Amino acid sequence: MTDIFLTTYLRQDFAKKCVEYIRERTKTPYLLTVIDNGGNEELKPLVDRYIPLWQNTGIHFAWNVAASLASDKYFVTSDPDLLCPDLEPDWLGQMIKFMDERPDYGAISMMPHIFIGAVGIDPYDPEEVKDRNMCGAVFRIMRTDAVRSVCGWDLKIEAGRNHEERTICSRLQAGGFKTGICSRIRAYHMFGDNWGYPEDFTPEMQKHNPQLKDYVKAFDNQNAYDPKTWMPKG
To answer: Is 229 exposed, middle or buried (0-12, 13-18, 19+ CB in 10 A)?
Structure first.
């Protein structure tokens, strides 16, 4: 049974919606765990395992907890502001198949419906998985023994944007593993007015670039995408 881990901090509405989509759209057997850095106790009855941390320990510590708890060949890590697609066979089964077929990969993530500050991937590219130096926690499936062999993530509480991805992907690559992003399995990345955080939690406090706020809102329109695949309509 594959572990799916969500790390949460505030953003209750986003996290609840993420969990609902996982429950509705995942048919492959899984165990859903929330590692909560704060503010999401209401998720406890909705998931298989709820782990409250004593303080906001940051993403690195939380993912190291996930790696220590993973009990299968692979485990999935994801931010809670994402919606998985509704595929047949289901997204998790397909991601597992990709890893089974690619034993040289340490991690493969879904493609978010919009990249910010990164080179995009053609959603109709015939190649199922594209090599990339970084893949984020976008329903990212990871090889458990590979992550453990490179000692997981840094022991950091405060870190800049994308530090998590750079850390684990560079370590996996140094350990001889590839990392990649799916071309055609997409997740919808929710943004909202304030990335889902309370209004008094500013973009700077979130480590977001405040200049991107209006830019990303233009893409926060689920009606512009197929609700099953998150591919652009038209």
So the answer is: middle
Domain positions in the chain are 2-224
Q: What is the DSSP string of 133-151?
A: S---SSSEEEEHHHHHHTT
Both structure tokens of 203: 């973009």
Number of neighbours of residue 98 by Cβ within 10 angstroms: 17
Here the tokens at position 31 are 């165990």
CA distances from 88 to 25, 129, 146, 229 (A): 10, 18, 28, 10
Q: Span 2-224: which CATH code?
A: 3.90.550.10
* pLDDT given for residue 119 in this prediction: 63
With cut-offs at 50, 70 and 90, classify the pLDDT of residue 4.
very high
Which uninterrupted H or E stretch holds 215? Answer: helix 213-217
Residue among 21, 55, 63, 13 nearest 38 (CA):
55
Digit-coded pLDDT (tens) for 74-102: 999 999 999 999 999 999 999 999 999 99
pTM across the whole model: 0.92
Whether residue 203 is predicted with pLDDT greater than 70 in this model: the reply is no
